[in-house]
Design goal:
This protein is 39% helix and 15% strand. By secondary structure, it is of the alpha/beta class. The protein has one domain: Rossmann fold (3-Layer(aba) Sandwich). The chain has a seven-stranded mixed sheet, sandwiched between helices. Helix 4 (88-100) links the parallel strand 2 (80-85) and strand 3 (106-109). The longest helix is centred in the middle third of the chain and has 16 residues, at 164-179. It is globular and about 45 Å long. Bound molecules: S-adenosylmethionine.
């Protein structure tokens, strides 16, 4: 592994994004959409991880780990976790959380397209791929880090790439949260200029991600709707937000011993 923390293709964009996420680390966990506070939602996440990954104590690389949502879940389930992120402030939050929970999680401060050598049994990510300047290249480097392993991408449908009905529901959810004065999801909006350098920057859909994965060295993926997570999340919402439903959640898997 090299010590590079920026893509050589777009260093200034990478630096701007790193600075954005460093600033976001202090408040990221306040948004309930990022870190669920419900035991039922967390149980649904634990079930999805055990269903989609090779069994513990497999080694797992969590790319774009942030404050450690997936990493902490995985370590609690008995996985050997390496958490990678390019924002040191995010990794500080993750390390503090792991230490409070008595969990050992290795951290690597690096760019997502420059993972440690591995080999890992699995590579996972949640909500990272949309903000990568070259997501296809990143997928290929993750494959090199887990040549015989499993890839699991956890995503939801969001942004202008979603269908009009889902865009309307998303607008309604945001409006209700604003009326309830819920914590903002982020400390600031992305600079609109950044989107030009991010192929998935306007949102993720199953269609876009399955095509991207099929074109990578992983080859065609398997798509899973995460209904248990949606259902449990829905039951935690106030009635005014519940009428707009929750964003569809899905996982895309590839490689590895295929149990699903
Ligand atoms: C939306 S957050 C998701 C965090 C976490 N996976 C979660 O589910 O809560 C995106 C994370 O990706 C990280 N990130 C963004 N671009 C990255 C890159 N090029 N290389 C590594 N990490 C990156 C950010 O620092 C941030 O922690």
């Amino acid at each position: 592994m090299t010590s590079s923390t920026g893509s050589d293709r777009a260093p200034s964009l990478q630096a701007a994004l790193r600075s954005y996420w460093n600033a976001d680390a202090a408040t990221y966990d306040q948004a309930v959409t990022h870190i669920p506070r419900s035991a039922a939602v967390n149980a649904a996440w634990a079930a999805a991880l055990l269903r989609l990954l090779p069994p513990p104590p497999a080694t797992v690389l969590d790319v774009g780990a942030g404050t450690g949502f997936l990493s902490v879940h995985l370590a609690q389930l008995g996985y050997q976790v390496t958490a990678l992120d390019s924002a040191p402030a995010m990794l500080e939050q993750l390390t503090a959380k792991a230490s409070r929970a008595g969990l050992a999680i290795k951290t690597v401060c690096a760019d997502a397209a420059d993972p440690p050598d591995g080999p890992f049994h699995a590579v996972v990510q949640r909500h990272l791929i949309w903000t990568l300047p070259d997501p296809g290249r990143a997928l290929n480097t993750w494959h090199q880090a887990a040549p015989d392993g499993r890839l699991v991408l956890f995503e939801s449908v969001w942004g202008s790439a979603a269908d009009p009905a889902e865009r309307f529901r998303s607008y309604g959810r945001r409006l209700v949260r604003r009326l309830h004065r819920d914590a903002h999801e982020h400390h600031a909006e992305y600079d609109p200029q950044w989107h030009a350098g991010l192929p998935l920057g306007t949102g993720t859909t199953p269609e876009a991600l399955t095509s991207l994965l099929a074109a990578s060295t992983w080859g065609p993926g398997r798509l899973h709707r995460l209904r248990d997570i949606e259902w449990t999340t829905l039951t935690t919402l106030p009635p005014s937000e519940r009428i707009f439903g929750v964003a569809p959640r899905f996982a895309l898997t590839a490689g590895g011993p295929a149990r699903h």
